[in-house]
Every structure is written in structure tokens, then in C-alpha cells.
Amino acid sequence: MATDPEHVRLPSRDGLPLSALLLPPAPAVTVTEVPGVVVLHGFGSRKENHLDFAGRVADAGMWAVVPDLRGHGETGGPMDEGMIGDVLACLDHLESRGAGPLGLRGSSMGGFLSLIAAPMHPRVGALVALCPAQQEPLARRLEANWPLSHSLECAAWRDDGIARGFWHARGDEVVPWGNTLNLHSRTPQPKHLRIRMGGSHRSPQHDPAVQADTVAFLAEALHASPPTPVSGT
Fold it and tell me: Which architecture, in CATH terms, is 6-221?
């Protein structure tokens, strides 16, 4: 990780204060427009659990912001459909910092939110969904707090030019990997699918190979310029 993360408080689309960590791109990046990536945790998790991936994003020359979604970590509020507004607010914040184009990387519930929110923001060009949660099981887990009126399939199958990457572990004990296979099969190009042998629901989050592959996918799709080595190092 090139620099220490900055703790920021930013308003969600409905005004709820969100706690987030912001990482700037590698210091030697001098291009005019630098991509930015919102890194999203899953149900019951928090931003610190995904800081390792955010550091890889920053080291690859992109902005990264990792929020505590509502009802998680240091962010209050109920775990409801307002989380979609949380994601959009994080994209807005990156845009206010001069970042663009923008990407999303989410795990489990965060993967679901990435797929739903991506078509809602005009600057999003790519997303990565790790073991993305499915709509009905997620709705049951969140009980009455979230009607989940948005369709995962309609969001994923939009022919809008957004590059969608799917990674899943065959050993996932929470979300069957076949669900992601089916979702990917009807997703228009550009897209990418990687099913890894073994593993578990959470293993792709911190797998060094998956992290490297997903950062490379986002960097290519968002046209990120590689960091320039600092003189004398």
C-alpha cells in the first residue's frame, strides 16, 4: 500500500453519513484522468476487511474508496435498500476527487450491489463481482428491512458497454457457483468469468491471485495507466 488510507465521512444519497477509507493512487501517477474503484464488503462485514484489496487498487494507479455500508461497521442506519444509494454516493465522491472512469468491486452482498448500482451511474465502466449474492436468499437474510425491488438479472444483462467480471469459488458453501455461471451466460460482452477450484465463500476476497486478476481486469477496462517508477528506487 503506497500511502495510509484517509478516513472520510461522506453523505449517502439520502443524507445518511457513511464512514469510509479513501486511498489515493500511487504518487507517481501523473495522467490527467485517473480511474477510481469502490470496494464493497459483504453482509455482516466492514471496510477494514477489504483494505488489502483497496491497497492493490491504489498501487495499480487508481483511486480506491472502501465504505462501511449502512448498518455495518461505523455507519449507522438499517440494512435496507438505501445501501444502493450508499454505493452511488461513493461513486459520486470519487468523481468529486477528479476520478474517472469508475469501477466497482464487491464480494457477496457487495457483488450484488455492484451489479445493481453499476448501470445507475453514468461514469461506471467496469465491475467485479466475487461470489455475488442472489436476490431471494439475500432478501430472506435481510428479512423485512429490504424488499429488493431491483432485479439482479435485469441489471446484469443490460447491453450498456459496462465490463462485468465474475469470480466464484466452486467450494462456496453459501452461494452455489452455478448461479454465477448462469448469470454470466446471459451477460453481454464485454464480460469475464473465472470459476476457481475449491475455496469457500470468502476465500476469493483475499486470494492473491484473484486480487491480481481482478485489479488487472479493472485497470484494463478503465484504461488505467501503470504507475511510473519513482526515480532512484
Answer: 3-Layer(aba) Sandwich (3.40)
